[in-house]
């Protein structure tokens, strides 16, 4: 599952841009891809004015291989990617298919009721967990690499909590 969320950037700096949902105040955007249980697989930081579909392939390619305990090569590609209307693009659907990934993206200009909302809530929940950390809710760092370090630290804590529950 793939989704993104905007945050406010107080100091500006790298990877910030005018937020179209916050009256053009400076902001950043966290793009996140998770598995079916909401465990984060990869995240990307961009300016708030970056469109979601531009980061889809970067998110899929950023997934690192994980050993599952079975013989053979570790999986590093998901079987399918689910996303909302922001990720609908013919070129990106074709790019996912060339990677042997089935795209389940809601189509634009169609009535609601695609049924993806019943399974996509886990990525929304993961974004909510991520933004419970104060340093990730509002961006105070001017340098993007420092904020990305906090972002990946937050993702590691979410993974740790998921292991603790299992």
Automatic annotation (TrEMBL):
Residue stretches making up the Transposase IS4-like domain: 2-157
Pfam family, one: DDE_Tnp_1
Positions of region (Disordered): 1-29, 67-88
Regions of compositional bias (Basic residues) in chain numbering: 68-78
Comp. bias regions, Basic and acidic residues: 79-88
InterPro entries with a match to the protein in the record: Transposase_11 (IPR002559)
Coiled coil feature spans: none
Top-level division of the source organism's lineage: Bacteria
PANTHER family: BLR1914 PROTEIN, PHP DOMAIN PROTEIN
UniProt-recorded name of the protein: Transposase
Source organism: Marichromatium gracile (Chromatium gracile)
